[in-house]
Design a protein that fits this description.
Blueprint lengths: L1 H24 L14 E5 L5 E5 L3
Antiparallel strand pairs: 1-2
């Protein structure tokens, strides 16, 4: 179960990084707010469980 969670987390991280890289490569300089997806950060609780949280600006 833990291995599946780690693999899923890695895939989601890769997708988020690639999507933010595509937006940067496209030269998006409109001054729009950062999309919520790029503000996602992985955290863990005191039991070692990982979860996604939205980073506050």
């Amino acid at each position: 179960m833990l291995k599946k969670t780690v693999i899923t987390s890695a895939v989601v991280s890769a997708l988020l990084l690639s999507s933010s890289g595509i937006a940067a490569a496209a030269g998006d300089k409109s001054g729009a707010q950062t999309p919520a997806a790029s503000r996602l950060v992985m955290s863990s609780d005191s039991y070692g469980r990982n979860y996604w949280a939205i980073q506050q600006p």
